[in-house]
Write a structure and sequence with these properties.
By secondary structure, the protein is mainly beta. The chain has one helix at 27-32; strands spanning 2-4, 11-14, 21-24, 36-40, 44-46, 53-56, 64-68, 74-80, 86-91, 105-108. The radius of gyration is 13 Å and the shape is globular. This is CENP-V/GFA domain-containing protein.
Length: 113
C-alpha cells in the first residue's frame, strides 16, 4: 500500500493491508486524530530521505513520532514491540486509495499508562 503526508514530501509503501486500526486516547494520539496500523519494520519502506522528517518523543521516549518537516503531518511512528522486535505504527489516514470507514477500530486506553 502507498502512503504519504499531505504535501507528498514524505512517501512510503507498506507490505500488506490493514485488517483493523487502533484508536488511542493518549495525549498525543487524541490531539493528532491518528488511527494506527502496526506492522513489522521489514514491512515498511520509506521512499524519501530521512532529512524530510522530524521526530518527536514524549513520556518514556521510546516511540519516535515521525512527521513531515514541510506540512507537519504525522504519517507514522517507530518503536520496539514488547518482544523486542522493531515495529512501525502507520497512520491509516495517510494511506492512499483506502476505505478507512470499512476498517474495524480497536480502542486503546493510552491515558491509563
Amino acid at each position: 500500500m502507498k502512503g504519504s503526508c499531505h504535501c507528498g514530501n514524505v512517501q512510503f509503501t507498506v507490505d500488506g493491508a490493514p485488517t483493523e486500526a487502533m484508536s488511542c486516547n493518549c495525549s498525543m494520539c487524541q490531539r493528532k486524530g491518528t488511527l494506527m496500523w502496526f506492522v513489522s519494520r521489514e514491512q515498511f519502506h520509506l521512499h524519501t530521505p530521512e532529512h524530510h522528517l522530524r521526530d518527536y518523543t514524549f513520556n518514556k521516549h521510546v516511540i519516535r513520532h515521525r512527521f513531515c518537516q514541510q506540512c507537519g503531518i504525522h504519517a507514522f511512528c517507530e518503536g520496539i514491540r514488547p518482544d523486542g522486535a522493531a515495529m512501525v505504527a502507520i497512520n491509516v489516514r495517510c494511506l492512499e486509495d483506502f476505505d478507512i470507514d470499512a476498517l474495524p477500530l480497536k480502542h486503546y486506553n493510552g491515558r491509563a499508562l
